[in-house]
Amino acid sequence: MHKNAPSYFSNLKCRECGRLYPKQAIHVCDFDFGPLEAAYDYDAIKAALNREVIESRPKSMWRYRELLPIDGEPTVGTQVGFTPLVKADRLAEKLGIKALYIKNDTVNYPTLSFKDRVVSVALSRAKELGFTTVACASTGNLANSVAANAAAAGLKSYVLIPADLEQGKVLGSLVYGTNVIGIHGAYDQVNRLCSEIAGKYGWGFVNVNLRPYYAEGSKSMGFEIMEQLGWRIPRHTVVPMASGSLLTKIHKSYGEFTKVGIVDDAPFSIHGAQATGCAPISHAMKKGTDIVKPVPKPDTIAKSLAIGTPADGYYAIHVMRQTGGFAEDVTDDEIVEGIKLLAEYAGIFAETAGGVTVACAKKLIESGKIPRDEEAVLCITGHGLKTQEAIQGKCGELRLIKPSLREFEEKVYAPDQAATAASPSPQ
Ligand SMILES: *Cc1c(COP(=O)(O)O)cnc(C)c1O
Ligand SMILES: [Zn+2]
């Protein structure tokens, strides 16, 4: 692709009334306050994009360039994405389902969470729009990714977070030399302050005034899932929800690949996962309403998902309903159990949000909402090394011995045990 490769990204468009807006740093409709979303020329994309074209490109999220909202070449996070889709047979057997896949964004580049996808798009667009200072309101992972990608791109950055985040998340922002601001308050208060700052100083807030661009980055997780499954839509997808944006964008990605003829239309269900200590979307779903009641004081170890007033909650509910999906939520103990299941049966160390997703999937399978003879993809969105506090002291103990064979045999592996164990015979 070249600098002047055609852009298929035409406008911003109100999700409520459909009014079109120019592609600026704006995010709400003047008439009804509906969220603005990127719109594309799908007929032109259909003519330009196909499986072979995509397969010929480098393995990053930018291989789906035509369906991402920037004008020129990406300039930030060009190597983000194309994380592994792992077929997790042992975990499938443990949970009692025919087939299970883990979309493993714990190893996303460069900051080990799916947020690198949204930041890559938001900052590439921020540069096109001429911003030199970028910022965000974050529950942790977004802060890490803005800090890292802004540092690499030479942009000034401010990241605002609730003051009580995990050490790994705080340090994982500070290391990049950014301005890390801890707010005494919950995420919603951080977010409100950011809206005021964005209005006053004209910085590029990735999830405020640049939100339409930011949000589109999440689609790449869905595009990759379809490609890695052999160009098809999975029957079930389980997605963790904070604002609910990732869930709605995975839905959009499935629809777009169908619309431009890259995959065949097929039935699918998208399910949402939250922590019971902050489950405004799941609770609304279970009550059968689309009115999301705010949670003023989130209380869960899944801090990355602790958004009490989820911006896309209403739309997430409609996606779940429309696709025959369900929402679940799980306690802190279940989250820890979910983290351990994923580690012990798939060899993947996820953060608390991953524990939420696995534990909710387990519940959905047990209740028959995901039938045992079907397949599911679990979106695992962040790395466990960032939330070590959550499992500290809950994973067994280190066994300490002196550097002596006798002590090893006394305390770890007894000789009589060794004699009866099936030892591999030399060939
Ligand atoms: C931000 C985040 C999510 C989901 O965020 P949405 O606001 O719902 O898009 C999921 N998992 C992790 C680890 C996150 O950091
Ligand atoms: Zn509108």
Describe the structure.
- This protein is α/β, with parallel strands linked by helices and 427 residues long.
- It has a domain at 85-111 and 216-391: Rossmann fold (3-Layer(aba) Sandwich).
- Helices cover 38% and strands 15% of the residues.
- The protein is built from 16 helices and 13 strands.
- The protein has helices at residues 42-48, 51-55, 89-95, 115-128, 141-153, 167-174, 187-201, 211-216, 219-228, 245-259, 280-287, 313-322, 332-346, 352-366, 405-411, 415-420; strands at residues 9-14, 20-21, 36-40, 85-87, 99-104, 133-137, 156-162, 179-183, 204-205, 236-240, 269-275, 327-330, 375-380.
- It has a six-stranded mixed sheet, with helices on both faces. A four-stranded parallel sheet has the order 8-7-6-9, with helices on both faces. Strands 2-1-3 form a three-stranded antiparallel sheet.
- Strand 10 (236-240), helix 10 (245-259) and strand 11 form a beta-alpha-beta unit.
- Helix 13 (332-346) crosses helix 14.
- The longest helix is centred in the middle third of the chain and has 15 residues, at 187-201.
- The relative contact order is 0.12.
- Pyridoxal-5'-phosphate binds at residues 113, 115, 141, 240-246, 304-305, 351, 353, 381-382.
